[in-house]
Design a protein that fits this description.
By secondary structure, this protein is α/β, with parallel strands linked by helices. The protein folds into two domains: 176 residues, Quinone Oxidoreductase, Chain A, domain 1 (Alpha-Beta Complex), CATH 3.90.180.10; 133 residues, NAD(P)-binding Rossmann-like Domain (Rossmann fold), CATH 3.40.50. It is built from eleven helices and 18 strands. Strands 3, 5, 6, 9, 10, 17 and 18 form a seven-stranded mixed beta sheet that branches. A six-stranded parallel beta sheet has the order 13-12-11-14-15-16, sandwiched between helices. Helix 3 packs across helix 4. It is globular, with a radius of gyration of 20 Å. It comes from Donghicola mangrovi. Keywords: Metal-binding, Oxidoreductase, Zinc. Belongs to the zinc-containing alcohol dehydrogenase family.
Length: 350
């Protein structure tokens, strides 16, 4: 079967490998759609970040080259021994987390903070840029009948956004800022609407993405290349209660902190390619808080329930659909060259 595998920086190859077979406790899935994530783009441009290269990952037992793709959904085609609660033909969204189940975080139920955390399609396993995938049965969630397969491919990134907002201090009626209106940033805007934020101020250089942010409910959308974004936010709000950093751009982190009010919070959602610095006194003198967030835990059912209500709409967020053969030129390189794209979905080959 055809797959897209990471071999190195700017070296993703579409190759033929054998179809995987499910072992005990696993299921085989005919992949439908897989999204290209910002994490995938980081691996393409500056990896390895999550991809294991020198040694096998302790949970996937794989190392590069690995089949990429972790934002995906599909249809169950085969059940491994001992799998119950699922049937051939079930449409499922994949929660692609490798967790050991034994470390302190896992024992507390916080499996996204596992000491050996990994992701299918980044840390090994049978990723979604393929015709078929095999994953542990515990990684899949049945999709509601009225959700499309394209929506299924958005469950994973929407879960990132919903978990970030749940982890934040935001309360109904609070004011928020979102720095970066890429796919996750826009999904954070929608999650903030769900949480009852009274104002949502978005900072984004792309005109197309600013327009999209306003379309899905942002109060304002500021171009940081022509406006002092922090000054504009502080003037409008007196400082927001929570700022979400969703760019991974070093100079943006201090802007997020400075956009918050006293005792405000900055939620760092991005995965970073390099260091970022800020003046600690900006946090100390206002008793501000910095909080990191990674992935999600226990939110897939809530995400899909919200999707049935019209949130996290694929119709609004998907800007391009491509074939696996075109994943480099029309996918990764397009995302590098054209900041107007929001979410690109890759259709699985037959």
């Amino acid at each position: 079967m055809k797959v897209a595998r990471w071999h190195g920086v700017k070296d993703i190859r579409v190759e033929d490998i054998s179809e995987p077979t499910p072992a005990a406790g696993e299921i085989k899935i005919k992949v439908a759609w897989t999204g290209i994530c910002g994490s995938d783009l980081h691996e393409y441009l500056a990896g390895p970040i999550f991809v294991p290269v020198a040694e096998n990952h302790p949970l996937s037992h794989d190392k590069a080259p690995i089949t990429m793709g972790h934002e995906y959904c599909g249809t169950v085609t085969e059940l491994g021994q001992g799998v119950s609660g699922l049937s051939v033909g079930d449409r499922v969204a994949i929660e692609p987390i490798f967790a050991c189940g034994e470390c302190a975080a896992c024992m507390e139920g916080k499996y996204n903070l596992c000491a050996s955390l990994g992701f299918v399609g980044l840390s090994g396993g049978h990723g979604g840029f393929a015709a078929y995938s095999v994953v542990p049965a515990r990684m899949v969630h049945k999709m509601p009948d009225d959700l499309s397969m394209e929506q299924g491919a958005l469950v994973e990134p929407a879960a990132v956004a919903l978990h970030a907002v749940r982890l934040s201090k935001i309360k109904a009626g609070d004011k928020a800022a979102v720095f970066g209106a890429g796919p996750i940033g826009l999904l954070v805007v929608e999650a903030l609407r769900v949480a009852g934020a009274a104002e949502i101020h978005v900072v984004e250089p792309s005109e197309v993405r600013r327009a999209k942010a306003l379309e899905i409910g942002a109060t304002t959308a500021i171009d940081p290349t022509s406006t002092d974004a922090v000054a504009a936010i502080v003037q409008a709000t007196g400082g927001v209660h929570v700022a979400f950093e969703v760019t991974g751009v070093p100079q943006v982190l201090p802007q997020c902190i400075n956009a918050t009010r006293h005792e405000g919070q900055t939620l760092i959602v991005s995965i970073w390619e390099s260091d970022a610095s800020f003046q600690p006194n900006t946090a100390v003198l206002k008793e501000r808080q910095l909080q990191g967030t990674i992935a999600y835990r226990n939110v897939y059912p809530a995400v899909m329930a919200l999707m049935t209500q019209g949130y996290f709409s694929a119709e609004k967020l998907v800007t391009k659909r491509i074939a696996l053969d075109d994943i480099v030129a029309e996918g990764f390189e397009a995302l590098v060259a054209e900041k107007s794209h929001v979410k690109i979905l890759v259709e699985a080959p037959e």
